[in-house]
Design a protein that fits this description.
CATH class of the largest domain: Alpha Beta
Number of helices: 11
Distance between the termini: 46 Å
CATH superfamily of the largest domain: Ribonuclease H-like superfamily/Ribonuclease H
CATH architecture of the largest domain: 2-Layer Sandwich
Number of strands: 16
Helix content: 25-40%
Structural class: alpha+beta
Number of domains: 2
Strand content: 25-35%
Radius of gyration: 29 Å
Order of helices and strands: EEEEHEHEHHHHHHEEEEEEEHEEEHH
CATH topology of the largest domain: Nucleotidyltransferase, domain 5
Largest sheet: 7 strands, antiparallel
Length: 377
């Protein structure tokens, strides 16, 4: 077995404020000769831990020169891991941890992953793919978006061939390629750690609103459209930028949410016209055909019964003219729509709301939550 220890000088964005319990957290990554622990083995494990009170990390790597060293590699890694509370990995929930568990069982080595906390960066990030809008969520793709300067260019599959050549020849060049790939996987995870903070800020709505304005746009055919522009600031830097959008029914105007570093922007189309708000307790209302409106029976009883009829779900409404912004869920009151059958919901945009930062923040939270939970296509 070959063991190598060196320092990883993490960039400032990988400082502990992005990770709770950083001093008791251990990054790790494994390299294997195949995908199945039944017919392949672990030939390398890399791990990194923070040097308190410094902001740099120590990286330890164990390379099995052949399958006969695998048990020793696993034992040394688990001995180091026993001093930490949390394992940090990339898709380790699906691959690394089950693989180590199965191979450790083969050698009667005790390993209970349930005894430790686990942070799977991949599992955290993939939940926010509708907002991040990356091409894919492989570690190298996320590293690239986070501007990590990876030196290694080999894939895991290519590395298996390199390992076989090293195992046969013990060639120094092959050995260096193996260590470099694992090193960059570990350092790459440190580099993308701030994305955990972004995920938390999106989930917990950790931002403040700075300004709100209405923009007017003139099209080529002289028609006018209006857009609500809301700017805000995240509580931490994101070190990544992205723009996502969400449609609203048959409307051609999408709602956009974008961020760059810690600055955020919402662009929301405004519908100006007339919509209706429907009352669910229609049995307590009367409908007035000549007025095209419903009136609560506590008031309607004082009017001529010839001009009214019992309301139905379809005509129990009041019409409003004004400015409206889209909703994707019936979570505000009152809700407006074009007609009873319409699934396109709206919220009225009043001067009062424009000056109410709390109401605007609730609405922006609704947009973020809607984009996150939208079915991915």
């Amino acid at each position: 077995m070959i063991k190598v220890t060196n320092r990883l000088y993490a960039p400032p964005k990988a400082l502990p404020q992005y990770l709770a319990n950083a001093d008791k957290s251990l990054y790790f990554d494994i390299e294997t000769t195949g995908l199945s622990p039944r017919n392949s083995f672990i030939y390398m494990i890399g791990a990194a831990f923070r040097n308190d009170p410094d902001n740099d990390y120590t990286c330890v790597q164990w390379l099995a020169e052949s399958i006969t060293n695998e048990a020793e590699v696993i034992e040394e890694f688990l001995e180091l891991a026993s001093g930490y509370d949390t394992l940090i990995h990339y898709n380790g929930t699906t691959f690394d941890i089950p693989f180590i568990t199965k191979r450790a069982e083969l050698y009667d080595i005790n390993f209970d992953p349930a005894s430790m906390q686990s942070i799977d960066i991949y599992k955290r990030v993939i939940k926010y793919r509708n907002i991040l809008c990356f091409n894919d969520y492989k570690q190298k793709t996320v590293e690239n978006r986070m501007k990590y300067p990876r030196k290694d260019t080999l894939s895991g599959k290519e590395l298996i061939d390199i390992y076989k050549k090293f195992s046969d020849s013990k060639d120094e060049e092959f050995k260096n390629l193996l260590f470099l790939h694992n090193h960059d996987d570990i350092e790459g995870m440190l580099s993308i750690t701030p994305i955990l903070s972004l995920c938390s800020m999106l989930r917990n709505h950790e931002y403040v609103l700075d300004s709100v304005n209405i923009h007017e746009h003139k099209s080529l055919n002289d028609s006018t459209s209006h857009e609500l522009m809301i700017k805000g600031t995240f509580s931490n830097m994101t070190h990544v930028s992205s723009t996502s959008n969400i449609t609203h029914g048959s409307s051609e105007d999408n709602t956009f949410f974008s961020f760059n570093e810690n600055r955020i922007l919402f662009k929301i189309p405004i519908f100006i016209g007339e919509l209706k708000t429907y009352y669910k307790d229609y049995k307590n209302y009367y409908y007035y055909p000549t007025e095209d409106m419903a009136v609560h029976k506590s008031v309607a009883i004082y009017t001529d019964s010839d001009y009214r009829e019992k309301a139905s779900p379809e005509n129990c409404y009041t019409r409003f003219a004004g400015a409206f912004i889209p909703l994707w869920k019936d979570c505000f009151t009152p809700v407006f729509r074009a007609d009873y059958q319409s699934e396109d919901l709206y919220l009225t945009l009043t001067d009062e709301m424009m000056n109410d930062k709390t109401a605007l923040k609730d609405y922006c939270d609704h947009i973020i939550d809607t984009i996150i939970t939208r079915k991915h296509t």
